[in-house]
Amino acid sequence: MSNVKKPRHKRLVDELITFTEWQTERTFTYRLKRLNCLDAFIAMIAEKHGEDCALSFEDWHIEEENFFDAKLSEIADELWEADSNCPELIKQDSETKQMVVVLPEPYLSQREKGNLYRLSYYDQRGASYHDVFQTFKDAVKSAFMGGYNTLVAGSLDALVGTDEWNKGLVVTKAVQSGVWLKEYLDTLATPEERALFNI
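The structure corresponding to this sequence follows.
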């Protein structure tokens, strides 16, 4: 019989995994890393079960799921209290100043479907898209899972009004007008808009 360990995706539900194996394999880490709470989870397991524990794959999953949900609730509550219910979250590793804002859903048609919150995504060129969610916690979860996990109040104000942002607005106007950017700049743009493109 071989002593080679099975890859984690081939583990049986009731197969025992020791604390050391779990730490080595990092079986459940992606979501915990996104919430910046992996170390806290490891400390909780060590305190609750001991560092010589062995849990089934299913039990590891249950522990991670419960910890993740509790931590997510804690983060959502902190954001709700700290930032007037509309937190601005940034991607720290982004060179294009990517950020997301959790906002109340403005459209009645979406609110009637139960979607009470939206994530509005921005970068230095302006708004890019949005998603809708039923709860504030769901919106926060989506933001964190997407890598937007650093609260920086005033991030949107810092983007608005910059040349890159204003160029993005001109591109949006061209799209809304149904013409290519060059045609918009040649025929519809204001002198200020043309100056942004050195025309």
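The chain has a mean pLDDT of 88.
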